[in-house]
Amino acid sequence: MATIPNRNVAALIHAPIGRDAQIASALLAEAGIPSTIAADLHRFVAGLGEDIAFAVITEEALRSSDLRQLSAWIADQPSWSDLPFIILTHRGGGPERNPAAARLSDALGNVSFVERPFHVTTFVSVARSALRGRRRQYEARLRIEALDEGERRLQTALEAGRLGAWELDLATYDLTTSSTCRAIFGQGLEEEFTYDDLLASIHPDDLERMQDAVRATLETGVDYAIEYRTVWLDGTVHWAEIRAQLYRDRTGKALKLIGVSSDITDRIRSEEHQRHLNEVLEERVVARTEELHKAHAEVMAEVAQRERAEAQLRQAQKMEAIGQLTGGVAHDFNNLLMAVLGNLELLSKHATNDPKAVRLVEGALQGARRGASLTQRLLAFARRQDLHVGPVDVGNLVRDMTDLMKRSVGSSIVIETSLPPVPVVLLADSNQLELALLNLVVNARDAMPDGGTIHVNVRSFDQASQKGPLAAGGYGVLSVVDEGYGMDEETLEKAVEPFFSTKELGKGTGLGLSMIHGLALQLGGSLKLASAPTQGTIAELWIPRSDDLELGSTLSEEQPINGASGPKRILLVDDDFLIAMSSVDMLMDLGHEVVEAHSGIEALEILKEDSRFDLIITDYSMPGMTGGELVVAARALMPDIPILIASGYAELPSGVELDVGRLGKPYTQQQLVLEMAKILTCH
């Protein structure tokens, strides 16, 4: 185990009178400990540093000297360091009988006394004890540096996401905030920001609602999630979104609220601006309609039809724009999470003997995985999630999920199913289809707090011509019908927009229907919603039928894969240094030899000089030369080289058809092993 840095460490000796320095140096040399002799106290202090294992100094050298410089050095040691001092005293001059010697312990800290003339064994034993103590300090430094590095990377991810971190001690109500958090409340980066300051900064009309939310979290343990207005010191009004969870001790007692905050002022203003534009547009349309009605009571049906078409077009354009935005954000955040997850996963392997470090790493991993789950939902809405499409018997899928659906809705809800006598086989991803069905059933349950019946139906439908977004052809229709509150026309129009929810804060992400909508479009189908207040809701998921009645199976990550064992020589290409470093570390941890390149051009230069590679792993989105262009160029040099393309998107851009493996970001070490095994087995 490496406990001392890869450089020489030595003892530092200052014994200016007689031959004590030469004798001590010779004895240490025989014990295998190198040493350096300082001729005077100034050189002795100048020679102190992290490479000094311990210091040997005579009592008389300290008694008559100005020790302020030495005391200052001792006080300025880093937190992990407590340099051992061995004081050589005269016989009878030990700390028990010599108050002056005892005071040196207070001044120097970590002190051992050896009375002269000393026995060789005694001196060497004390020296080795000091060296062992110093080694433990070096070990502590390595652990502290590893934890600091993990914390810095997590902080980088928070800052990249413009999230401010904070903690509230529930015993003292002491508030600890990051600089980003303070900035969100209009405070200076270095200014003190107490809990009372926070309450004072909240808009008076929102303060009671905020305090009610905190009280609910403390009483029930529900996650704290709220949006409210803040008033900055300059009088301007801003919006903040706050999310937090309770941190408890081993007995379950709530100790802290730990969470993040973000500035959503631009989003709120954009929404308000959009609402204003919609109102203006609606006013203009109404005015124009009235004019046409007065002048031409009959071109009316045509005007109404045109308005509906324009509204549908605006909605489609808005949803497409939101999809592109959320997909891009999810892609970039996937890249950030790749660096965080990869490094935390490797760090966890090296912190198994430190329970606190294990807990801290696991907490960071859980937070990062929640972020990865959120990006997957965003990618689902943007139709860029990674799907494993194959024939799925939707009737069997409903039968297999009946017990789960019943457990999910509770005893006050009855679930009735209506399934066709012949199989209805869809071309879909079974896991995503199960998740979509469960989301629809849970939404239906939430719409019936007093109980009721949920009808789950499956039918087949043949469409002769294109209608709306659906092309002509055969479809399977999975419908979920409830008897709940229902939705008005305005709510129904926004139902599939991401983050829109009719549920109260903390009881839904607003991504359920948007994810199902994205899944349906990605599979070539559609999500149709029909509802009216007090009349319940009908949700229909239309998915193209499959002509293939052979139901396939997917390969799980736990299944062993042969044909790719043994260390490989791998060329890894990624323009993001953080992701490249994380991926290289994961591959080297698996025993592979890795050569790193940060652009497609650099990778080609390496391949031209050295073709001894078993595999190329490359990012797709890179400036100058994309991963797809690199694949074409690399195959010209090495036609049979296996290649994995890593990307935060589920699909490569249209028109890009490459014989390569796919690796979705962020990926774990196990997923990396699985995809490597697949591509290497095929070559």
Give the SSE layout:
Layout: E1 10-14, H1 20-30, E2 35-37, H2 41-47, E3 52-58, H3 59-63, H4 68-75, E4 85-90, H5 99-108, E5 111-116, H6 120-160, E6 164-169, E7 175-177, H7 179-184, H8 195-201, H9 204-220, E8 224-231, E9 237-248, E10 254-263, H10 265-295, H11 301-349, H12 355-381, E11 390-393, H13 394-409, E12 413-418, E13 425-428, H14 430-446, E14 452-463, E15 473-481, H15 489-494, H16 512-522, E16 526-531, E17 537-544, E18 569-573, H17 577-589, E19 593-597, H18 600-609, E20 615-619, H19 627-637, E21 643-647, E22 661-664, H20 669-682
Domain Response regulatory: 569-680
Modified residues (4-aspartylphosphate): 619
EC number: 2.7.13.3
Explain this structure:
The structure is a single chain. With about 675 residues, this protein is α/β, with parallel strands linked by helices. It has 4 domains: about 10-150, Response regulator (Rossmann fold, 3-Layer(aba) Sandwich), CATH 3.40.50; about 160-265, Beta-Lactamase; about 390-545, Histidine kinase-like ATPase, C-terminal domain (Heat Shock Protein 90); about 570-680, Response regulator (Rossmann fold). It is built from 20 helices and 22 strands. A 5-stranded parallel sheet has the order 2-1-3-4-5, with helices on both faces. Helix 11 runs antiparallel to helix 12, helix 13 (about 395-410) packs parallel to helix 14 and helix 18 packs parallel to helix 19. The longest helix has about 50 residues, at about 300-350. The chain is elongated, with a radius of gyration of 34 Å. The protein starts with 9 loop residues before the first strand and ends with a helix. The model is unreliable at about 1-5, about 380-385 and about 550-565 (pLDDT under 50). It comes from Shinella curvata. Keywords: Phosphoprotein. It catalyses: ATP + protein L-histidine = ADP + protein N-phospho-L-histidine. Its EC number is 2.7.13.3. This is histidine kinase.
